[in-house]
Fold:
Amino acid sequence: MHGFTRLKNLEEEKFYLTLHPSPTIVVVTKCPGNRFNAMPASWNVPLSEEPPAVGVAIDRETYTFECLEHHPEASLNVPGPELVDLVYSMGTVSGRDVDKIREFKVKLVDSETVSVPRWADAIASLEGKVWKYMDVGEVRFYAFRILAVHVREGLYTRWGWDFSKTNILLHGAGRAFYLVGRRVFARKPK
Ligand SMILES: Cc1cc2nc3c(=O)[nH]c(=O)nc-3n(C[C@H](O)[C@H](O)[C@H](O)COP(=O)(O)O)c2cc1C
Structure:
């Protein structure tokens, strides 16, 4: 058995990788000038079931932050593995400099409950309105109230995604992503 090393510089040694990989979503927002923007975010978490809510940590330097402050709605889109290159690219440029929707030919379709469209190629889209937020360090942690969820037919089961047919992008670090591998069942407690 190995001993433990205390990380000396939490920022430099990216302490948060102890909690990765983390499922990647693509946050689509409505921006000033009636444009839309898209950015990947792997710091996201389900927050409550009643009402349905999801939390996403958005760096206050991103254009997405500016867009959410302009229009407090978003679609949270779950990309499948075939979109890995595109998703990574969306996370390397800012909507301030590039119209990512046009540049990357992101196909958007109208949402049902919010005026921000969802990503047609995603395997799921959660439509949400900003419900509350909290500033934490460099990010604004948004709690979205989820108003509608669309999942791609044939892929979603009582256990969640059917990983024999699709996958999700778990973000490791930098360009590294992981796919979900094996399912293991815990023994029923006596
Ligand atoms: C896989 C991946 C996950 C990311 N997760 C987050 C995140 O959770 N929160 C965040 O603020 N930035 C995250 N980023 C960085 C933003 O996507 C990046 O800064 C992006 O260029 C911001 O775009 P925008 O300025 O158009 O909003 C992530 C990047 C990648 C590639």
User: Anything to note?
Assistant: Residues 21-152+159-178 form a domain with the Pnp Oxidase; Chain A fold (CATH 2.30.110.10). The chain has a mean pLDDT of 97.
